[in-house]
């Protein structure tokens, strides 16, 4: 079973914040493919997705970002399988990357991202695939930036970013992380900020 997890914070206060781009990506896939999406038996929403005979779960944890890793025990309990870190794709924001940049990675540190830190802690490894979506730009305070809402201009560009990221996700599922990295790591908007 493959698991694609989009990170974000629950609640109306955070819906349109940059920190929730992982949620945006899951919502994009669910809407595009008309996948039924419902509450799980824990702190998450999920839907089933299949490509090339590979079954996977789309997941949005509803704990706050700092406790995102709790979802793994809950998923294993509800679906009765052991999660393989090699079959995980974590989708989240990265303010170090310019807005509109897509970057797949095989492994790595949390780089200060508390949601990723929680995932690493609960998995006991930092070796799992990631899809970082750039939300960077000019800002003074990183916390204010990630918890701030997207600008109108950014909102207008988000569909392009999510569409290209989805192509990368399908590549990851069909051909693996190396192929996804080689073919989808770029700034979708071709902007230098």
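-> sequence recovered:
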């Amino acid at each position: 079973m493959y698991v694609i997890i989009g990170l974000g914070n629950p609640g109306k206060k955070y819906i349109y914040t940059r920190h929730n781009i992982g949620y945006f990506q899951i919502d994009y896939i669910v809407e595009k493919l008309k996948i039924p999406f419902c509450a799980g038996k824990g702190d998450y929403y999920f839907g089933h997705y299949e490509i090339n005979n590979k079954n996977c779960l789309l997941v949005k944890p509803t704990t706050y970002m700092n406790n995102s890793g709790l979802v793994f025990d809950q998923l294993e309990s509800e679906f009765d399988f052991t999660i393989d870190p090699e079959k995980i794709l974590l989708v989240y924001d990265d303010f170090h990357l310019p807005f509109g940049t897509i970057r797949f990675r095989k492994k790595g540190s949390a780089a200060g991202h508390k949601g990723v830190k929680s995932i690493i802690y609960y998995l006991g490894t930092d070796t799992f695939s990631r899809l970082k979506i750039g939300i960077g730009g000019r800002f003074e305070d990183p916390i204010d930036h990630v918890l701030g809402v997207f600008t109108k201009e950014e909102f207008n560009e988000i569909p392009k970013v999510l569409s290209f990221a989805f192509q990368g996700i399908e590549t990851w599922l069909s051909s693996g992380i190396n192929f996804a990295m080689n073919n989808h790591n770029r700034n979708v908007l071709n902007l230098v900020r």
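The mean pLDDT is 94.
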